[in-house]
């Protein structure tokens, strides 16, 4: 099964960001059932990360985005391993500028700059048995998309039947603030790159094949990614 606005596992991801809150009467545990357990919270050591980014810089990079249609809260950066913070890195590839490269083995997503560098983002990826690889492209883009649980999920979890006609976009929506929908040969693969508020998911395999970036990172990538952008998913 694959995550998108018609797939069950979408609810397993973004719901984890709302620790202690409920989604229309559903607690996050009902959405997270079957996902990887024991996601570790990795605190920043001292005043700077291993990459030289200060705590203040990280907090600014992942700070609140109040001007959004649904104001986005700050990410708790103490729950993200500093190696997954967004940064520009040297990256040798023959892929053209703008290409998105997903490295599920190392939990990174790269946007190729074309000058020997790339913007690198930390990510969550598919769990064991659900990872895939190959080429795709961005077939469409969505801001604050509607999430509709599939019939299979409604059958397993009758409490989500209230969303059979769609859950409107918002902070509690499993798809998050931005979504890139991946296509192959004109057909929607049902795989996505989506926005997550769940700091603890980054650096973990928890999905059914989709890739999640922290919301602030996803907004950054989304703004630079036109439809038809090539996406390369490397073998895990």
Please write out the topology.
Blueprint: H1 10-14, E1 22-23, E2 26-27, H2 28-32, H3 55-61, E3 87-90, E4 100-103, E5 108-112, E6 117-122, E7 125-126, E8 134-143, H4 151-156, E9 178-184, E10 187-196, E11 205-207, E12 211-214, H5 215-223, E13 230-233
What's this model, at a glance?
With 236 residues, this protein is an alpha+beta fold. The protein contains five helices and 13 strands. It has helices at 10-14, 28-32, 55-61, 151-156, 215-223, and strands at residues 22-23, 26-27, 87-90, 100-103, 108-112, 117-122, 125-126, 134-143, 178-184, 187-196, 205-207, 211-214, 230-233.
Kindly list the characteristics that best describe this protein.
236 residues, alpha+beta, L,D-transpeptidase catalytic domain-like, 9-stranded mixed beta sheet, two-stranded antiparallel sheet, 14% helix, 27% strand, globular, disordered N terminus, cell wall biogenesis/degradation, TAT_signal_bac_arc, L,D-transpeptidase, acyltransferase, acyltransferase activity
């Amino acid at each position: 099964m694959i995550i998108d606005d018609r797939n069950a596992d979408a609810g397993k991801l973004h719901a984890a960001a709302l620790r202690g809150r409920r989604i229309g009467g559903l607690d996050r545990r009902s959405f997270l059932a079957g996902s990887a357990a024991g996601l570790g919270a990795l605190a920043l050591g001292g005043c700077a990360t291993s990459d030289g980014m200060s705590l203040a810089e990280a907090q600014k990079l992942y700070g609140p985005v109040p001007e959004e249609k649904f104001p986005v809260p700050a990410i708790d950066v103490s729950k993200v391993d500093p190696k997954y913070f967004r940064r520009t890195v040297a990256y040798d590839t023959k892929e053209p500028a703008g290409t998105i490269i997903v490295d599920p083995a190392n939990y990174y997503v790269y946007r190729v700059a074309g000058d020997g560098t790339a913007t690198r983002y930390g990510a969550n990826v598919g769990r064991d048995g659900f990872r895939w690889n190959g080429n795709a492209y961005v077939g469409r883009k969505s801001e604050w998309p509607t999430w509709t649980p599939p019939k299979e999920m409604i059958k397993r979890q009758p409490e989500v039947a209230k969303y059979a006609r769609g859950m409107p976009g918002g902070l509690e929506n499993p798809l998050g603030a931005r979504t890139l929908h991946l296509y192959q040969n004109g057909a929607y693969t049902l795989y996505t790159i989506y926005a997550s508020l769940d700091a603890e998911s980054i650096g973990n395999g928890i999905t059914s094949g989709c890739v999640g970036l922290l919301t602030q990172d996803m907004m950054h990538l989304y703004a630079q990614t036109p439809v038809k952008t090539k996406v390369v998913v490397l073998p895990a």
